[in-house]
Amino acid sequence: MNASSSRAKASFRTQLRETARAAILDAAEELIATRGMEGAPLVQIAKRAGIAVGTLYNYFTDRDALVQALFESRRATLRPMIRVAIKANDKLGFEPRLRAFVHDVLAAFEAHRRFVKVAIEAEHRIAPSATSTDVHVAITELVKIGVREKAIAAGRAELLPTLIAGALRAVVLRRIGEDAPLVGDADTIVSIFLDGARA
User: Fold this and answer.
1) Domains of the chain
2) How far apart are the C-alpha atoms of 176 and 182, rounded to whole Å?
3) Which residues, 6+ apart, have CB-to-CB distance to 177 below 8 Å?
4) Is residue 152 a contact partner of residue 143, using CB atoms and an 8 Å limit?
5) Which of 45, 48, 78, 178 has the fewest CB atoms within 10 Å, counting from its CB?
6) Does 126 score more than 70 pLDDT?
7) How far, in Å, CA of 50 to CA of 44, rounded?
8) Angstrom distance (rounded) from CA 78 to CA 80
9) What is the DSSP string of 7-39?
10) CA distance 105 to 120
11) pLDDT tens digits for range 108-124
12) Is residue 130 very low, low, confident or very high in pLDDT (cuts 50, 70, 90)?
């Protein structure tokens, strides 16, 4: 066997492993999103992935390791979307930029709705994500812009990032629970944030 044949076989084995691993993660995401954590035992995840449960253990030692790997994989996809939302529209003023940011974050969550359901289900098992930190940091920067533009009172600025991040989270939780779209709430969230709820 020559060297190029060995490399081709090794490459093929690597591809097979990556394909099987991705199938396991997809199956876990689907089952946890639809049935909850307790409704997604490893046996069912393996069956959904089209592999034997013993094969699943070649990739993940237990369900916690599988869930951790799922979070790492999906966050690696979602986090760049959040970073694009942070950098986008940087030529706009405070209010239109905030509206665009909230819309883009909700659109990213909508695009990964199944994972968001898993994240809600498993949030007590997983450490806080860099994605939520990114969102909070971005909102903090936007609030600073709002203060500079005198759209926000400086004396109220400290708690505003936490309030809007909390509002985003609460709306996502509610809409996911209702199986309703997320993006349509972006302008309402920002309007209530800027103008309050009084008639």
Assistant:
1) 1-60 (1.10.10.60), 71-199 (1.10.357)
2) 8
3) none
4) yes
5) 178
6) no
7) 10
8) 6
9) HHHHHHHHHHHHHHHHHHHHHHHHHHHHH-STT
10) 16
11) 999 999 999 888 877 76
12) low
Identify the burial level of 138 via C-beta atoms within 10 angstroms of its C-beta, where 0-12 means exposed, 13-18 middle and 19 or more buried.
buried
pTM of the model: 0.81
Report which DSSP code applies to 95: H
Question: Residues 31, 48: contact at Cβ < 8 Å?
Answer: yes
Supply the mean pLDDT for the chain.
88
Average the pLDDT over 30-47 and give the result: 92
State the pLDDT at residue 75. Answer: 87
* Residue 154 DSSP code: G
- Rounded to the nearest 5 percent, the helix, strand and coil shares of the chain are 80, 0, 20
> What are 153's two structure tokens?
């009172």
pLDDT digits (tens, 9 = 90+) for 2-31: 666 677 666 767 788 899 999 999 999 999
Integer Cα distance of 87 and 198 in angstroms: 32
Can you tell me the distance from the alpha carbon of 29 to that of 42, in angstroms, rounded to the nearest whole number?
12
> Which amino acid makes up residue 146?
G
